[in-house]
Structures are given as structure tokens and as C-alpha cells.
Design brief:
There is one protein chain. By secondary structure, the chain is mostly beta strands. It has a single domain, classed as YVTN repeat-like/Quinoprotein amine dehydrogenase (Methylamine Dehydrogenase, Chain H, 7 Propeller). The chain has no helices and 22 strands. The strands form five sheets. An eight-stranded mixed beta sheet has the order 16-17-18-19-1-22-21-20, with no helix packed on it. The protein has a four-stranded antiparallel beta sheet with strand order 2-3-4-5, with no helix packed on it. Strands 6-7-8-9 form a four-stranded antiparallel beta sheet, with no helix packed on it. A hairpin with a 4-residue loop joins strand 10 and strand 11. The radius of gyration is 18 Å and the shape is globular.
């Protein structure tokens, strides 16, 4: 499985775009058995897609309590991946099954399926287009009704392609992407693929929670009305509401005379 396989080198150079830091505004409980693949916020609830065969779910979760109020399981043969809410429906990818599922957002009833080539990792939308990542540096842009590929673009920081793009979220017109096996989120222009900036989340999860089961940072949700940004990770004990802050510059060292 991709998440359990040997780490592939993304060969990304963080040299061009500016890097921001963060501060934690508040934390919320998160199911430590949830292998988070996709995260969305809507009307006071988090919608979460999880992975692993036999442990893949689509869930509606009360933000403040972490209580699961609705869920549906994927068949064992499917490894769940990213999700996105669009026009009263929830789209969910699978990793290597080449099939996605479309559910009613209000009742989680399966309405239809769609198919795509290659792997499915992350999903997001801006109301007019659906963005799909597959672990490479290329983002596929799908038609919102047919879910067929309308265009593709490569994500790069300067001249360096940014691979291992995973969970996606639209934030104020920018495409945010977790970079798998890193503590960084890329802020991407969906028009050009250019990385506008980075958010470095190193140190977000306290070392006391770093057990052998804890996996990587993955999961971005945005509350557009409240201007709140939420992040979590696979098997993490908390969802964090964060505020992006300027990165502190390293201290200037005076040259010795």
C-alpha cells in the first residue's frame, strides 16, 4: 500500500516560495483509529474519508465532540481516499480501484459511481471544477458534472516539481495540498500550478502523542464563513484549528572580527 510502502523521494526543493508558520487556536477530539484521507467542513460538522482495506469509511463528525453522527463503510476491496462536497453530494476516491463514489450529502446514500485512470489520492473543488491528486506533481481538473478530465497542470515551486501531492482543499481561491511524508502544506495557484507559498506545520503534534501508530499529517478543512482552517493527520488524536503566521526569520549572526 502506498502509505505503508518504502518512502519515495519527492525531490522537492523548497527554495522559491515563502514559508509561513502557524499558531494553534483550538484543538478538537479526533478518532485515533481514523486513517484520515480526506477532510471537509460544512455547517458545524467535519466530513471525513478514511483509508485502509476494511477500515475505509465516509463519516460525518461533530466538530466539537468528535462524535460520529453518520457513516458508511466502503467494501473491503476498496482503500478509501480523498473526499469533497459539491452541490449536495459527497465525492470519494479510492486508491487503486480506479473507481469513485458519489453519495447524497444529507443521507450518505450511494447515488452513482465514476471511474478514472491511475491512482486517486486527494479531492477538492471550487464549485466550477473538481481537482484530483494522484501522488505525482500533476493535478487533474475534472468537469463537475461528468467528472471527466478537462485539463491537467503540473505543480512546481520555481522550476522544481512538487510530487507526492495528497489531500487537497480550496482556501480563498488557492489549492492547499498536503505533501505526503512531510510537515508542509503547499499553497498552489489552480490557474498556473505555481506554488505561492508553504505552511510549515513542524511541531504541531506534541511528541507525547508520537506513538508507533501515529501516521503522517493529512487532512485539511476550511470553514469559509468563519475563516477557520483545520488540519489533522492519520490516526492523530486531535483536529487542530490553526492560524497561519509569518515564519520567524533565523537570528542574524554577527561576523567575528
Amino acid at each position: 500500500m502506498k502509505h505503508l510502502a518504502a518512502l519515495l523521494c519527492a525531490c522537492t526543493l523548497f527554495a522559491e516560495a515563502p514559508v509561513a508558520g502557524f499558531r494553534v487556536v483550538r484543538s478538537y477530539p479526533h478518532d485515533r483509529s481514523a486513517f484520515t484521507q480526506g477532510l471537509e467542513y460544512h455547517d458545524g460538522y467535519l466530513y471525513e474519508g478514511t483509508g485502509l482495506n476494511g477500515r475505509s469509511w465516509l463519516r460525518k463528525v461533530e466538530l466539537t465532540s468528535g462524535r460520529v453522527v453518520r457513516q458508511v463503510a466502503l467494501p473491503y476491496e476498496h482503500f478509501g481516499e480523498g473526499i469533497t462536497l459539491l452541490a449536495g453530494e459527497i465525492l470519494q476516491l479510492t486508491w487503486q480501484s480506479h473507481v469513485g463514489f458519489v453519495y447524497g450529502a444529507s443521507d450518505f446514500k450511494l447515488r452513482r459511481q465514476f471511474h478514472y485512470e491511475g491512482e486517486g489520492w486527494g479531492l477538492a473543488n471550487n464549485g466550477r471544477e473538481v481537482f484530483l491528486s494522484d501522488g505525482s506533481s500533476t493535478i487533474r481538473v475534472l468537469h463537475p458534472k461528468t467528472l471527466t478530465v478537462a485539463r491537467r497542470f503540473r505543480v512546481a515551486d520555481g522550476a522544481a516539481p512538487v510530487a507526492q501531492l495528497n489531500e487537497l482543499e480550496m482556501v480563498n481561491g488557492e489549492l492547499y495540498a498536503n505533501v505526503w511524508q512531510s510537515n508542509r502544506i503547499a499553497r498552489i495557484s489552480p490557474a498556473t500550478g505555481k506554488v505561492i507559498g508553504w505552511i510549515d506545520l513542524s511541531g504541531l503534534l506534541s511528541p507525547i502523542f508520537r506513538t508507533g501508530e501515529i501516521d503522517v499529517l493529512n487532512g485539511i478543512a476550511y470553514d469559509a464563513a468563519g475563516k477557520r482552517l483545520f488540519v489533522t493527520g492519520k490516526l492523530w488524536p486531535a483536529v487542530f484549528e490553526i492560524q497561519v503566521t509569518p515564519k520567524e526569520a533565523p537570528p542574524v549572526r554577527k561576523a567575528k572580527r
